[in-house]
Design brief:
It is built from 16 helices and 10 strands. By secondary structure, the protein is of the alpha/beta class. The strands form 2 sheets. Strands 1-2-3-4-5-6-7-8 form an 8-stranded parallel beta barrel, surrounded by 7 helices. The two termini are about 40 Å apart.
């Protein structure tokens, strides 16, 4: 099938994407992801495997931990920083805006020979200031000292305002201006509590982009989103449209409370919209390794990478896929009943048998396993399927066919 014929088969109502050649990604799986109450801290070799997969996927940076958390954390950070020397992906670490928190990063750089970006964070919302009894003047002073220390020590720094999406514009302006004047190379907008809506995301990112333009500086804008309201992914996509140039996310969206923007789904959507040209063929492996490393199973209906994502037992749907497969047309088979082409991500369509299946399901199922799909065998399998209130297992289908 020619490229022209393919374009004729799908009318795309989606908007033509705005190409973002400078778009970057920061993987938070090994820091924010591990703050999930259900996640376990992976062993070092598991973290190293994940870092290499991030690199394969074209992810630019990875947050590899909090140096101030523990001795184990510092040991892993140092080992990961050393491992990343020679890779395209580079490390960063999260620190409070305290020189005492940032100082260990200097030692890590000296010991590893790797450039390590410091992500210095401070709460910015009125509710946080009230709870902590913080005054804006002292927050600005902490910010200035922390970023100036990074600048003096030659550490690239990103200044992070926690809970930016609930912060007053004047506070946001004051904190970012202070950090930029002290030498911050990037500033990060955080939806720490998953409060933002897409419209709020657009307004806030636009506000910060205008502030950077007003200051006349070359400073990158990051977006770090959570999904407490289920809006993590869409907010990240809107942040890109509004001008954010580096997006933070985690494998499978693992993270504190309900988690973060899903890195895998973010890359899927940007790949499908033509906004990135990353090789995403290892995304399935990245998701699998991450799942095992943090001890969290992938739910069956998880988009793209869940067990059910490309599997159907429904007769009408399966028949269409099977017709395409019998024509030897994998492009058609992966799109006729799927908004995501399975083969683009190293996956494939799966035909199963259940109570809503038809003869084509059973015929294909048996043929794929080397069995002769006789009329009698098909009838026996369908009879079992129609009285079973769930999808049949492979063993059940084959046993019924052989009776």
């Amino acid at each position: 099938m020619s490229a022209k014929d393919e374009s004729d088969l799908i009318y795309d109502w989606n908007e033509v994407p705005r190409v973002v050649p400078e778009l970057m990604f920061d993987d938070e799986t090994l820091r924010d992801g591990l703050q999930s109450p259900s996640a376990r801290d992976p062993e070092l070799d598991e973290k190293i495997r994940l870092v290499h997969l991030m690199d394969d996927l074209g992810i630019d940076t990875a947050d590899i931990g909090l140096p101030g958390a523990s001795e184990r954390a510092r040991e892993h950070i140092l080992a990961l920083a050393k491992e990343m020397v020679g890779l395209n992906i580079t490390p960063n670490v999260a620190c409070r805006t305290l020189v005492s928190d940032i100082a260990p990063a200097v030692d890590i750089v000296q010991a590893s020979g790797a450039p390590v970006e410091v992500c210095a964070f401070i709460g910015s919302s009125p509710i946080r200031q009230y709870t902590e009894n913080w005054k804006l003047e002292s927050m600005l002073e902490l910010t200035r000292k922390a970023i100036e220390f990074c600048t003096k020590e030659g550490l690239p720094s990103m200044f992070v305002t926690e809970d930016t999406t609930r912060a007053h514009p004047d506070t946001v302006r004051a904190l970012y201006t202070t950090a930029i004047e002290a030498g911050a190379r990037r500033i990060c907008i955080c939806d720490t509590c998953g409060h933002a809506t897409p419209s709020g995301t657009r307004r806030l990112v636009t506000f910060v982009k205008d502030l950077v333009a007003e200051l006349g500086v070359d400073v990158g804008i990051d977006w770090h989103g959570h999904r407490d309201r289920g809006l993590g992914l869409i907010n990240s996509l809107v942040a890109i449209e509004a001008g954010a140039t580096r997006i933070h996310a985690t494998a499978l969206g693992v993270g504190e409370r309900t988690g973060n923007t899903e890195m895998d789904l973010l890359l899927v959507n940007l790949k499908l919209s033509g906004q990135i040209d990353n090789d995403v063929s290892m995304l399935g492996e990245y998701v699998r390794v991450a799942s095992e490393a943090v001890g969290l199973e992938i739910t069956p209906n998880y988009p793209v990478f869940g067990k059910d994502a490309f599997e159907t037992a429904t007769g009408v749907h399966a028949a269409a896929v099977i017709k395409a497969l019998r024509r030897g047309d994998s492009w058609l088979a992966n799109r006729v009943y799927s908004g995501v082409p399975a083969d683009l991500f190293g996956l494939e369509q799966v035909i199963a048998v259940g109570p809503m299946s038809g003869k084509s399901n059973v015929t294909w199922f048996l043929e794929k396993r080397g069995y002769d799909p006789t009329d009698e065998a098909i009838d026996r399998v369908l009879a079992l399927a129609k009285k079973t209130p769930r999808q049949l297992t492979e063993e059940e289908v084959l046993a019924a066919a052989k009776v």
